[in-house]
Design the sequence.
């Protein structure tokens, strides 16, 4: 239990990932599934950024005197997460556009109704 409290950021990331995964599994609404996927993305970004942080070291920005390689954190995890954020935003925009097209074709964004062939027009 103490390990969980010491690593509270990682624990929070895992809980957040579970919330996003449950959101994707439980809901049949496509928008809610996209939101769940975004929560999972955020959890992964939080986890990797927390792992990239090293207490006592500075961000790799040289201001003033150069302190040596050991004084700065590795910038690669942070830059990879920035790339991941850009990819996640692009993927969200694509999925929302796809959801709009699905709504135009089937008249609904509920996955259950789409699998049945679309909204019943006789209602």
Sequence:
């Amino acid at each position: 239990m103490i390990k969980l409290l010491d690593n509270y950021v990682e624990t929070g990331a895992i809980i957040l990932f579970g919330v996003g995964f449950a959101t994707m599994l439980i809901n049949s609404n496509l928008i809610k599934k996209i939101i769940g996927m975004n929560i999972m993305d955020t959890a992964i970004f939080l986890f990797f950024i927390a792992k990239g942080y090293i207490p006592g070291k500075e961000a790799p920005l040289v201001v003033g005197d150069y302190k040596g390689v050991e004084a700065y954190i590795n910038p690669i995890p942070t830059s990879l997460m920035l790339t991941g954020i850009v990819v996640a935003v692009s993927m969200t925009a694509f999925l929302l556009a796809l959801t709009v097209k699905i709504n135009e074709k089937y008249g609904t964004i509920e996955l259950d109704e789409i699998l049945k062939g679309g909204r019943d027009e006789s209602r």
